[in-house]
Amino acid sequence: MKHKSFFWFVLPSSIAMLLFIFFPILSVLLQSVFTEHEQVIKEVRNCGPFGCQTTTSIDQEATAALREAEPLGRFVGLGVYFDRGHLALSEVSQLWRESAGLGAFFDRLLNLPFYKAIAFTLTYTFVVTPLTIVLGFVIAVAVNSAARAIRGPLIFVSLLPFIITPLVGSLVLFWMLDARGIIGSAMQVLADDPDLSVKASTPLMWTMLMVYGVWHSAPFAFIVYYAGLQTVNQDTLEAAMVDGASRWERIRYVVIPHLLPITTFIALIQLMDNFRVFEPIVSFSAQAHATSLSWAIYNDLSGETRQLSSAAATSFLTIIGVAILLSPVIVRTYRDFTRK
Amino acid sequence: MSFMKTTALASVLAVTGTAVLADCPVTEGRLSIVGNEFPAIQSVAALAQECMGEGTEASANLTADHQKINVAGMSGNPAEYTSAIIANSSIVALINEDVIRPLDDLIAEYGQDIPDLQKITIDGQVMAIAFMANAQTLVYRADVLEQIGVDVPETYEEVLEAAEMIREQGIMENPLGGAYAAGWNLAEEFVNMYIGHGGQFYEAGTPQVAINNEAGVKTLEMLKALSEYMNPDYLTHDSNATSAEWEAGNVALMNMWGSRSGVLMDEEGSEPQVYENTKVAPPLTVDGGDIPASTLWWDGWTVAKNISDEDAAATFQALAHATSPALLNDKTMGEAVWLIDGYEPAPVNEGVLAATRMGTQPYPMLPYQGLLHTALGDNIADYLQGNETAEQALSDIEAAYTAAAQEKGFLN
């Protein structure tokens, strides 16, 4: 393609990417390095139905003048990134000096909100992603070998968890898991422990969040693999059969190698999605047991006083996290590409 | 609320609406309300919308998530919402962001009838008109207390004793309830209990937090002691889930909002055994103190700053009408402790009225209180689950608050 026609060809999508991806990220970055002005507090007398009180309030006139002078706020550089709510550099180095061993250090590190969130986020990502891929593949192979007549309905049912809105899907599971719900009661009977409660135990809550994660995204892996299975070369398969390859050997030596590039694609999407785990934590009211980076952003923005800079810093750290996670896969794809 | 009730409410409102159209309808301007969702506010919003005449715009967005959208919805020019219905904690965010206007000129022109009791004055300017009071007070099951032979508890220590007796006698496994969901609700319970212990949140006159003290430790210990008599899932139970537990007959004693107690005493959602024996009592004290371990709240309405004078006048008139004696009728009378002339308390409102008589403190109206509330909500659960000591939890809360307050420019 000529350079000129290439330029016109990609121009519309480049403009869209610039407008809807690049500029918003730039604005988040900008927000994360500026914070609000130092507040001018004045003493005021407030009166209401319960009597009068002397208390403090923000001096709006003085604040308006400050805003006029510096509309973006106070420049703090990476200050917010390094404070206790995020990377907590000074707290971590203090812990490192004071802790007796590595175990004690990690134990206390997980008490800091950012590290607590990243611990769950990474565990979730690295447990859910491979399980999703394996389960998706198994379903795809099973559906592919089912009789043609029932394949349509089977595909529809298998896709259901992915179609249901995440918030609704997780709420349904949450109610079923309640100590008085169907799964919750069944677990109590099976474990022979009437006090067993998923919502009261951190390990069980983590497990449930991950089970939900696999349940919700396995259909995505399934449908991509199913599409891939339709392109497997039938001649190769038949040749393998003639050579006496068993069903397992055909899958292992013909199907899986054929689907490897698809696996890379699914892994890429799933790593990104799972790193941003959010909905199940809200629907499961799990914040006492598990928090994630996305949940931390939501929490900063949903308090009575919104912490925009803090949320922006966490967002940017999430972007960096996703980039680090994806780098091995992207490097691999790039190598494959240049080798050809 | 069921369909029957909603229609009944609507028809009652329709009748009163046509009967008292003295200063209604408003003929020009726009009314757009954002606010919380519970029966009392629904009644106010419905009557205000009815006051808007032909050719005007009237809408209301009532949702439990109102705090997440009201600042954003009032920051634009012109603002999407012409009025936010708020409480004494949430008005702070609107004042901090400077999105609501003083009402003095509107009161002079259209609101001479509004009693001083309803005016929320901040630094000499009226910023909101309050219409109802609210507080968390004790709700108890009269039949269960009779069965174990104890009087209605007046302190949290007595609540613990009663809970132990109920459990021992095998009446209920988890006799206590409470909105202890990690986050806003749990933080609110801490604020109540800490005030009950006579604690001060800040070093006098500064935004410097000071809760890592004896009162703070005792507060956490009491919360934990209470939680041991609650459903093991208590960290996921907000006011709605706690009310459901109550209606299911699993709970005999709990600290609950006055505005939500009426639902527990009506015939819907529970057995006669439960709703007939559901009674409200004054708020509890703790640790020998006289100040109840509860906070007083008002709900009121504001007018947005970034709207035209015409819209502001329309909004003011409609809401002033909706929170005037015209609102009160048989249906609405019991919905809240109204601060409106002509209000006659129903039995369900006795808890909140007792709270005002007992000198319960209002929830602190400080520009940085919201940050402390968030820090409390994020860090108490670790202690309650036994992951760390009370002192560690309190120091975590202080550190989280300090980091947030530095970012927002309250501390250096």
TrEMBL record, chain A:
Pfam families: BPD_transp_1
Family: Belongs to the binding-protein-dependent transport system permease family.
Location in the cell: Cell membrane
InterPro entries, per database record: ABC_transporter_permease (IPR051393), MetI-like (IPR000515), MetI-like_sf (IPR035906)
Membrane-spanning intervals of the chain: 6-30, 117-143, 155-177, 209-228, 251-269, 310-331
Organism: Palleronia salina
Membrane topology, from the record: Multi-pass membrane protein
BP GO annotations: transmembrane transport
Protein's recorded name: Carbohydrate ABC transporter membrane protein 1, CUT1 family
Domain ABC transmembrane type-1: 118-329
GO cellular component annotations of the record: plasma membrane
CDD domains, per the entry: TM_PBP2 (cd06261)
The entry's keywords: Cell membrane, Membrane, Transmembrane, Transmembrane helix, Transport
From TrEMBL, chain B:
Gene Ontology cellular component list: periplasmic space
Source organism, top-level taxon: Bacteria
Broad class of the protein's primary localization: periplasm
Presence of the UniProt keyword Signal in the record: yes
Compartments (UniProt record): Periplasm
Record bears the keyword Signal: yes
Alphabetized UniProt keyword annotations: Signal
Signal sequence range: 1-22
Family label: Belongs to the bacterial solute-binding protein 1 family.
Name this protein carries in UniProt: Carbohydrate ABC transporter substrate-binding protein, CUT1 family
Species assigned in the record: Palleronia salina
